[in-house]
Amino acid sequence: MKLSDFDYDLPKELIAQYPTGCRDDSRLIVFRRGGGGISETRFANIVRYIQPGDLVVINNSKVIPARIFGRKKTGARIEIFLIRKTGGGNWIALLKPSKRVREGDEILVGQEGDSITLVREVENGEWEVKLLDTMPEWDFIEAYGEIPLPPYIKRESEKIDKGRYQTVYASCKGSVAAPTAGLHFTEEIMRKIQWKGCTVLSLTLHIGTGTFRPLRNEIIEDNKLSPEYIRIKKKVWDEIKLTKKDNRRVIAVGTTTTRMLESLASGAIEDRREDEIDGEIWISGNTKLFIYPGFKFKIVDALVTNLHLPRSSLFLLVSAFAGRENMLHAYEWAANRGVRFYSYGDVMFIQ
């Protein structure tokens, strides 16, 4: 299977640079699999398409202010992009420019000269770094970090992004990119879904920088995705499996939620463990699951998702779910109507 078969043209002016005025004011493309057609409405109307008895699953991961700008003692400016925790105040990070640094360097941040130490270079251009240990870890990140916007948003982060590049239900710190399908939901919509007789359950998948990295190999099967950390209560996973047995729909909010649910169902969790915390059993581990056409979905029946980059792993996932030709047609249909694409863009409900 060739990556070039999943390419499409998109005018740059359709790439959203800012969010809409209100979360639920985005446009909603409703795509019905099996020849049911395609239509457009406002996201505020999504509750109409959710049925009593449906189970809606959300990713509650919270974006951290992962971009930290500092300087070497020589004055050279260095960007540190935190990717994932390794423990004890240490993180794996990307550095820019990476050629100007070496092991043991201290990168000064802030006016007080607080610092981050470069412990060692690991692999794929990544470094292990240690945050200042005289300040609580999250206090340090909140004090000096900035929200990391995707590279196709051609501006620096602004005050609006601190709130709007998070879902209203974000609660578990760890992502460096937002689970963007969830950005459209408001607290009122979440309440309406539950009032309709639906269940809403949450899980956690911390999104890494791999979501921005292009697939490099033309042969799709030759590509691999970076691992992403997952965490879910065992009783939540049990309820999801029971929903499937009862022949009720499981609606995934986002490709990250889909990837995690299908990883659990197929056993594609590395370092899987179960731990008891405060009387609850939690399942955790890492997933590298790469979903592309030919994949057999075991859990997800309907999907809320933004419109994704061509040739990306996310576009491959939605093509696996709804069909390549269907998605190429739907994306062309959306572009012709001026629908806004990518993270701050509009949204699609595939059912």
Walk me through what this model shows.
- The model has no long low-confidence stretch (mean pLDDT 94).
- The relative contact order is 0.20.
- Strands 2-1-19-18-15-3-13-14-17-16 form a 10-stranded mixed sheet. It has a 7-stranded antiparallel sheet with strand order 8-9-10-7-6-5-11.
- With 351 residues, the chain is α+β, with helices and mostly antiparallel strands.
- The chain has 7 helices and 19 strands.
Give the CA-based shape: globular
Determine the strand fraction and express it as a percent band.
Answer: 25-35%
Mean pLDDT: 94
Extended strand count: 19
> How are strands sequenced across the largest beta sheet?
2-1-19-18-15-3-13-14-17-16
Uncertain segments are: none
Number of domains: 2
Overall CATH architecture of the largest domain: 3-Layer(aba) Sandwich
Topology as H/E string? Answer: EEEEEEEEEEHEHEHEEHEHEEEHHE
Biggest sheet character: 10 strands, mixed
CATH class of the largest domain: Alpha Beta
Rounded Rg: 21 Å
Count of runs of 4 or more consecutive helical residues: 7
Give the N-terminus to C-terminus distance in angstroms.
25 Å
Say which CATH homologous superfamily of the largest domain is assigned: QueA-like
Topology summary:
Layout: E1 27-32, E2 37-42, E3 55-59, E4 61-63, E5 67-71, E6 77-87, E7 90-96, E8 106-109, E9 114-121, E10 126-131, H1 137-144, E11 145-146, H2 159-164, E12 172-175, H3 187-195, E13 199-205, E14 228-233, H4 234-245, E15 250-253, H5 255-266, E16 270-277, E17 280-287, E18 302-306, H6 313-322, H7 324-336, E19 347-350
Parallel strand pairs: 1-19, 3-13, 3-15, 4-12, 15-18
Antiparallel strand pairs: 1-2, 5-6, 5-11, 6-7, 7-10, 8-9, 9-10, 13-14, 14-17, 16-17, 18-19
Helix pairs in contact: 6-7
